[in-house]
Amino acid sequence: MSVWAVLAAAGRGERLEAERPKAFAQLRGRPLLAESLERFEASGWIESIVVVAPPGWEEPVILLAEELGCGKVVASVAGGETRADSVRIGVGEVAADAAVIVVHDAARPLVSDELVERVVTPLSQGWDGAVPGLAVVDTVKRVGPDGAIVETVPRGDLVVVQTPQAFVADVLRRALASESASAATDCASLVEAQGGRVQVVDGDPRLLKVTSPEDLALVEIWLAA
Ligand code: CTP
Ligand code: MG
Q: Which parts of 89-225 are beta strand (E)?
């Protein structure tokens, strides 16, 4: 089974308020992107990697991959306006004969090979896709524009989902081709919209998506532990 990874790293990282795009924000003295790149390079599951870079940063991505000895990186392409646009561009670089595409946010540096295994495995059991999810532990409210609570949402069957998300390659290609795809915040929602069956597997709290400077500090602590 040929598994390709698309690393979405093209975001601006506005909420991080760094001088550089988030993928090049410093985590323990190296670009944030280095962490997921190295982990995918070492993965027994992933054959090739496409990096979707912040526009203008395609070359620095290649240099970083070379510096880290990441020979699986076959392309570095400039991303698009939205995350889904970036993923679509990245998937365009995936070989036609790839069986599975794993899409991952570079903003989640602490990806593990166990997690990759967990999302790839259901695809050989007839699922179109698999995504890591965490149970919602807080009480969930729907709130109106004036701040008034509209309702309390039962949380029993709710999960928050993370990346890496794995898909049968052709299913993902079809889902990304849909007209309304650009606005999607994850790939699974596009596959779901086309009737695809996506399984939720156990996520990992350490797959935190680095959004604010505090998140970066927390990941540094986890890495040092
Ligand atoms: N992403 C992307 N292309 C975009 C927007 C986001 O590849 N046009 C990627 C980001 O690089 C990140 C992931 O999608 O790895 C999740 O996005 P998010 O956490 O929102 O990152 P940013 O968009 O960079 O951050 P912000 O929203 O604070 O600007
Ligand atoms: Mg964003």
A: 100-105, 129-135, 140-143, 149-153, 159-161, 165-168, 198-202
For residue 113, give every residue at least 6 positions away whose Cβ sits within 8 Å of its Cβ, in sequence order, or none: 39, 42, 43, 44, 45
List Cβ neighbours of 185 (8 Å cut-off, separation of 6 or more).
83, 84
So what's the pLDDT on residue 124? Answer: 97
Average pLDDT, the chain: 97
The type of residue at 155 is R
126: left (phi over 0), alpha (psi -120 to 50) or beta: left
| Helix (H) / strand (E) containing 22 | none
Nearest to 155 by CA among 138, 130, 175: 138
User: How far apart are the CA of 9 and the centre of ligand 1, in A?
Assistant: 7
Interval 80-107: pLDDT, tens: 999 999 999 999 999 999 999 999 999 9
CB 77 near ligand 1, within 6 Å: no
Say if residue 179's pLDDT is above 90.
no
Beta bridge partners of 50: 6, 75
In this structure, the residue with its CA closest to atom 10 of ligand 1 is 11
Q: How far apart are CA 142 and CA 37, in angstroms?
A: 38
Q: How many Cβ atoms sit within 10 Å of the Cβ of residue 43? A: 22
Residue type, 185: T
Ligand nearest to the CA of 13: 1
pLDDT at 143 over 90: yes
With the most atoms of ligand 1 within 8 angstroms of its CB, the residue from 16, 22, 211, 216 to mutate is 22
